[in-house]
Write a structure and sequence with these properties.
The chain is of the alpha+beta class. It has 12 helices and 20 strands.
Length: about 400
């Protein structure tokens, strides 16, 4: 039987779901409140679009801190490798970069949007510009979608409205409202992959400084327990910290306004304490009669030198030849354990993804169909699943969208 399917939201999950259902013979309407499809895709990865992570399913699940096991069926059905084959087969060349991140060869996120737009239109999907005010539900089964101007009747509906992050792209929580109408519980949304604010003035002093190849630990103050550790890049901003390792850390933290945390940054993770001490001795001996403030350019970025010197407590004009062993060891501890107090997450509308959403216990992991309302499916960020940076969140959208599209296409 040829089903009539309405997909609500033309983001990553919605475009994949709509095109897939159309490919399998369903009559598909894709309802999008923005004038253009894929607005959030167009700005991901700084406009380059990190469209997946080229890894196996087990590795993938280990990068999904929130309800990762729920995704086994979706990922086995449509894996990161399948995603690459899909985009290549639809005319988009891809490349794999550091950390198995996959990008279009063109480095243009808009090319990803264009590819998906072509995928849905070639499969006969009708795109309608409109806002889903409510689901039409009768006897526990979805029957249609009510927009501001009409009622669109259907056999199946797929909610792909995203979360609350980047509201200017259309992610304003519409999917939660529709899910609640169908009786679903919503796990309270919170920001994930979000920059962090700090009370430390040093962040503003180092604003714009990007650090590479650092090791990061997020430590809960009360217990001194490390809740997250990572290696990679970060950035100091006027409000605090951002960058890949900082963004991924948030998924493992409670609200910093309720639970106190600090970040501990090892600026020289490749060097052990003794190796680093030998390096410092060598640097100081080469600059034996110079002021310490003029002798650290090979050791630290320029913006960081005055900040570290202030923490060290050694006079800026102290000569290298008069630095004591105790002072040297204190400097080592600062550089290998540079602490930044965490005050709060930035607002949810600045988050890359939203944590929280439709409770996974109320969705079938094998089909993405609601357990509470027949014919209703969910895909993408509207579900309470989120992952680290590196292409994992977009892959969740592709995999859940694919599964929802396939299962909605036929009864």
């Amino acid at each position: 039987m040829k089903n009539k399917v309405v997909v609500i939201g033309a983001g990553a999950a919605g475009l994949m779901a709509a095109g897939t259902a159309g490919e399998l013979g369903a009559e598909v309407i894709l309802l999008e409140k923005n004038k253009k499809v894929g607005r959030k895709i167009a700005i991901t990865g700084k406009g380059r679009c990190n469209l997946t992570n080229y890894c196996d399913v087990q590795t993938f699940i280990s990068n999904v801190p929130t309800n990762g096991k729920f995704l086994y069926s979706a990922l086995n059905n449509f894996s990161p490798y399948d995603t690459v084959v899909f985009f290549n087969g639809n005319g988009l060349e891809t490349k794999v970069e550091r950390g198995n991140r996959v990008f279009p060869v063109s480095d243009r996120a808009l090319d990803v949007v264009d590819t998906l737009h072509g995928f849905v239109t070639d499969r006969g999907v009708k795109i309608i510009n409109g806002f889903a005010e409510a689901l039409i539900i009768k006897d526990g089964q979805v029957k249609g979608v009510k927009t501001e101007s009409e009622k669109i009747m259907c056999d199946k509906a797929i909610v792909c409205c995203g979360g609350l992050s980047y509201p200017l792209t259309g992610s304003t929580g519409d999917g939660y409202r529709l899910a609640k109408q169908a009786g679903h519980n919503i796990v309270k949304p919170k920001p994930s992959l979000v920059p962090m604010e700090s009370t430390d003035s040093c962040c503003k002093e180092m604003q714009g400084l990007s650090l590479k190849n650092i090791s990061l630990k997020i430590v809960e103050e009360k217990t001194e327990k490390t809740v997250y550790s990572d290696f990679g890049e970060m950035l100091f901003t006027h409000f605090g910290m951002s960058g890949p390792v900082i963004l991924s850390a948030g998924a493992n933290m409670d609200d910093p306004q309720k639970t106190a945390y600090y970040a501990e940054i090892d600026l020289k993770p490749a060097l052990g304490f003794e190796q680093f001490d030998a390096r410092l001795l060598r640097d100081f001996s080469e600059n034996i009669n110079r002021d310490i403030s003029n002798s650290m350019s090979r050791l630290l970025p320029k913006k960081m030198i005055p900040v570290v010197l202030k923490r060290w407590g050694v006079s800026f004009d102290k000569k290298c030849n008069s630095i004591t062993k105790e002072e040297r060891h204190k400097l080592l501890e600062i550089i290998k354990g540079f602490r930044v107090q965490i005050k709060s997450f930035r607002p949810i509308d600045e988050a890359i993804v939203t944590s929280g959403g439709v409770a996974v216990s109320e969705i079938s992991p094998k089909t993405m169909e609601s357990k509470l309302c027949k014919g209703l499916y969910f895909a993408g960020e509207v579900i309470d699943v989120d992952a680290y940076t590196g292409g994992f969140n977009l892959q969740i959208a592709w995999s859940t969208g694919r599964l929802a599209g396939e299962n909605s296409a036929y009864s």
